[in-house]
């Protein structure tokens, strides 16, 4: 069976990834599963560049098929911040409760029509023959007025999706995977992988 490495140690993310890639004739491993502990400098200026940096570095290290993603939250009122710095926003070790509260504070008196935001996810696949393919997915929404929901991670509890009348952290996992930025990008990547595996 083919082995695919997804370049993350994030357990919440791996749960989503494994669910969406479950139709592949492949086992999907995280960096943690394989005991890989590397510090990769993500100095790209786009989500796609950062995803490619990670996938290529880990593929060179392992010689295998490696997927990597870079994703984040773009808030229009904050000039698309935190953007590519979403994970490092306010410091890498700052909890998302603190980050989410700080964003809500910045948007305190901002009306809904100016709270537009989106999650963006770029996924890169680096293959042993040197080929690199990328996909991208987005989900549009607004920044809510409070932290709500426990199903997601990161900025999910403040990302409100008007058509579902709830945050992405309040959606059941299956529903979230169908509409999320990562879900969309992963399904596009699934088509690429099916041709290669």
Structure explained in plain terms:
Helix content is 30%, strand content 26%. With 197 residues, the protein is an alpha+beta fold. The chain has a single domain (2-196), classed as Maf protein. Strands 1, 2, 3, 4, 5, 6, 7 and 8 form an eight-stranded mixed β-sheet that branches. A hairpin with a 5-residue loop joins strand 5 and strand 6 (132-143). Helix 4 crosses helix 5 (181-196). The model has no long low-confidence stretch (mean pLDDT 94).
Question: Which features does this protein show?
Answer:
8-stranded mixed sheet, 30% helix, alpha+beta, 197 residues, globular, Maf protein
Describe this structure in a few short sentences:
With 197 residues, the chain is α+β, with helices and mostly antiparallel strands.
What is the averaged pLDDT score? 94
Q: What is the fold named in CATH at topology level?
A: Maf protein
Using the CA coordinates, give the radius of gyration. 17 Å
Identify low-pLDDT runs.
none
Helix content: 25-40%
- What class do helices, strands and sheet pairing give? alpha+beta
Give me the count of strands. Answer: 8
